[in-house]
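[Automated response] Your request has been received and processed.

Submitted sequence:
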Amino acid sequence: MKFIRCWMLGWLLYSTVLVAQEKLSLEDCIAYGLTNHGSMTIAENNRLASEAAVNEVVAGYLPKVSVNGSIDDNIKVQEQVIPAGIFSDEDLRVAFTKQFNTTGSVQVDQVIYDQSLLIGIKAGKFNKAQATLTKQQQEEQLVYSISTYYYQSWVYQLQLKFLEQNKDSYQSQLEIAGLQFQKGTLSKVDYDRLQVNYNSILSNIRTASNNLYNSINKLKNAIGFPLDQELMLQEVSNVPEGALTNEDSWDTFKLQQRSDYLLDSLQTQLLELDFKRIRYSNLPRLSFYARYGTIGFGDNLSESFNTQQAFSAIGIKLSSTLFEGFGKKARAKQAELKYLNAQEQQRLNVNTYELEVENASHKLTTATTAINQELENVSLAESVFNGTNLQYQKGVASLKDWLDDQLAYKEAQRNYLQAVVDYYVATLELKKANGSLFTNYNTLKSN
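Generated structure:
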């Protein structure tokens, strides 16, 4: 066993190092998180505990076998009085036992009918399904968190990519401007203006790098990855995957896909069963029993064992509570109202789900339009800046034109980054509202 534990620990460490060396995609991060994050262990343990609880309830309808045994030392044997006139003219004092008596018995009890127990068994199955759905809901929440931090890191990487391009542009321009300043063809104010913009880019790079570092650490925490190890993500492209997709290909709303709706349904059914359990609690409980044992008496302990006599019995027991001061009626009324409220709340929740889907769909439509427009605007601003940059090198355009077009290019990049953020937020919100977060992950995994 020690060898196996050491081997498993070694494999886990090797796998972690291997993951750290690879560039992970979103589906890689999700798969790692679903395997390694502690919340999944807790969810699985809760599911197993619910299965054990179901078995406990079912055990109520299985046979019960009990064994009993006793040894009594009647230090002062109790005597009974037989009144005078029956066997003699005076009262007779008779002991109907001896100083020692020993008994041993085995009894089997089997429930034949118990309505409360039957309802409990049915409720146990719902509880088991509820635990499974709760685990699924936690998986969906984990997928949502991992996706959020992954996309956040993706945006910061794209921002750094833009900033590095801008830095290179300013750096090249500063080298040219330095020569112009030395020759006296460029004023110190214009040179300082370029230097200020260049320094601002460096400051933005430091901020974006810090944001990326924090975001990746959040991603590590979300997937259960060691913070002291490097986590590398796949290279980003300028356009998010799926950002140009037509809305006809988006997931349609299916109520049965939402785990919270299914959990609401199960909770409503459990409240209905609780109401029925209380309502029918006065129904008779019928059970069968069979008993076999031995009993012995003696003036000393060994004699009580040597004189053992067998006895046995079978029977049927019927028990029921006929009246309990209207307590059952009050409890049943409370349970019924809770059940009716749960039904009404579920209808309200369905309206909320539909509203969430409608708003998320509209938000994603707007975001998709915006990301297309802003991407086109980035290309246009880049083209304008490249033209101005060429003209400036030829001496046709002024430094002010160069700075203005560079600023417009940076502004177009910022607008595009914000559109990317809005797109990712809207995408996740729509998938969450549709209940398709986990479905989409499985699609990614199969591809």
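Summary generated for your ticket: Strands lie at 23-24, 64-73, 80-82, 92-94, 100-113, 232-233, 285-298, 309-319. The radius of gyration is 40 Å.
If you did not submit this request, please reply to this message.
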